[in-house]
Design a protein that fits this description.
By secondary structure, the chain is mostly helical. The protein contains 2 helices and no strands. The protein has a domain of about 80 residues. The radius of gyration is 42 Å and the shape is rod-shaped.
Length: about 120
């Protein structure tokens, strides 16, 4: 408490009592209490505003990084699609035959008999 010991607090209280007087002391203490409450609320509001602003800045930074990652992923996806498209549509090299597509079976395989006759 501001580095004041019990002796210093007692001396300050006696001086205030002598200067203000016993009749005005309760009113002075109420006023001091109200002022202290107002200052404390103002400090809390200021602290809360700083915290909210810091959180907003942090959220903006995270959003910016997320957008950058999203753009990188979209670019990688686009490049992968282009690479896959060029593999499927690659022209045959001169002198080499194109690979034949997988042949489809002419007849579907016969279903096994379930009745063991």
């Amino acid at each position: 408490m501001l580095g004041l010991g019990l002796g210093e607090i007692a001396i300050i209280a006696i001086v205030i009592l002598l200067v203000v007087g016993p009749e005005q002391l309760p009113q002075l203490m109420r006023t001091a209490g109200r002022t202290y409450g107002q200052v404390r609320r103002a400090a809390d509001d200021l602290r809360r505003a700083f915290v909210l602003e810091a959180d907003r800045q942090d959220a903006d930074e995270r959003y910016r990084k997320l957008q950058e990652r999203r753009k990188e992923m979209e670019e990688a996806r686009r490049q992968a699609k282009e690479a896959l498209g060029s593999v499927h549509q690659a022209p045959a090299l001169p002198g080499l035959p194109r690979p034949a597509p997988d042949p489809e079976p002419e007849h579907p395989p016969a279903a096994p008999d379930g009745g063991g006759s």
